[in-house]
Specification:
Layout lengths: L2 H8 L3 H9 L14 H8 L2 H9 L16 H7 L3 H9 L3
Length: 93
């Protein structure tokens, strides 16, 4: 995960995340353990960032498993971010 992407999500800055994507940065790239920006956004309850990540995901699904077997939806559920869970379970339906 690129540091600028991490910082944008950590700071709940979906507009910066959008700018990074528009500049050509792969904002959905996983780190070495399969953790994606969507995992971070879901864990933080950042619905607007999840929407940006989904917008730029093209054909891939942002609700993927990390190396520990968790999806972003599972992180959101664990931390009681119901709107994120709803979005993640419906956006590819």
């Amino acid at each position: 995960m690129h540091n600028a992407v991490y910082d944008a999500i950590k700071n709940d800055d979906h507009q910066m995340l959008e700018k990074l994507a528009e500049a050509g940065l792969d904002i959905n790239a996983p780190n070495e353990s399969g953790w994606t920006p969507a995992h971070l956004a879901a864990r933080r309850g950042n619905l607007e960032c999840l929407k940006v990540l989904a917008k730029y995901a093209e054909e891939e699904d942002i609700n993927v498993y990390d190396d520990d077997g968790w999806t972003p939806a599972l992180y959101a559920k664990f931390h009681d971010y119901d709107k994120c869970v709803e979005f993640l379970t419906k956006y590819r339906s």
